């Protein structure tokens, strides 16, 4: 195959990072975005930790309102509820404070505020102007760097991706001080999700020298700092470097794509409520083994970056890292039943992420082979 491809630049304006970034930069970004009535979207855990007060105090203006009812996997009714409150408040901008579910919820709010069409058929809304969204993440999930929102239909359990450049947050503020109350297992699991993304990027059918280099350096940062920053929430430098690794990886995804790990976590999350980071951690070694023959060079190079020898060495390194972080290794350990696997596999076949997996995912049996191994 000839040397060719594409590099897609992110839709947002930029990222500010480092300890104290919220206090130093947020008010300026609010002013730069011409917000006079920002609507803040967050979750109860952020409120209980006192972090919301820190962010609101740094806005520079009074918020039009606050919605603190974000729920894991972003159920569609929650998006509708938050959008109605934001519309009633007269909001002229959006600020998200929290993890990926909060960010996706805020993207969904921006989508619904751009017109009177339901989430069932959002196509007429996609190209309409959206309110500016400033994101202040508290985990390593990375949704703040993408133009996709994953929203779950609670009836079917299917998680649908809504994708458009206008949904990307305009600015992201990475401040490790905002991660102090993030539970260690959540920090670890979202870090493993980013690590899985980096590995899938390097094995993607659309990988490029740029994405390989970026993902490789992100793996170095995560390999050096994820465990230490999980064990010590006062390790602000390590946490800042893990945040930067997340930015590096996620800013490349739009042009590179992921693979079977991403598709599995989307559907394990939407249908069964398994957290994305946990699902990624569990299935990653099994997807690596399943893909090994289709992407030997990429996976062996990744193994070397993480100080392992060969694909089996990489799998061993991932399993050891999972144990160091105290994360589960089996789907059965997080409440998944064997009877659930067939439905998950069917949903995975329709997930956009499988399109760039290095090994073709042709039928339900392909997906079940991985799920059975991870069970």
CATH topology of the largest domain: Dehydroquinate synthase-like, alpha domain
Report the portion of residues in β strands: 5-15%
Stretches where pLDDT is under 50 for at least 5 consecutive residues are: none
User: Class by helix and strand content?
Assistant: alpha/beta
Strand arrangement in the largest pleated sheet: 1-8-5-4-2-3
Q: Compute the separation of the termini in Å.
A: 37 Å
Bin the helical content.
Answer: 40-55%
Total domains, how many? 2
Order of SSEs: EHEHHEHEHHEEEEHHHHHHHHHH
Mean pLDDT: 93
Q: What is the CA-based Rg, rounded?
A: 20 Å
What is the number of E strands? 8
CATH class of the largest domain: Mainly Alpha
**Fourth-level CATH superfamily of the largest domain:** Dehydroquinate synthase-like - alpha domain
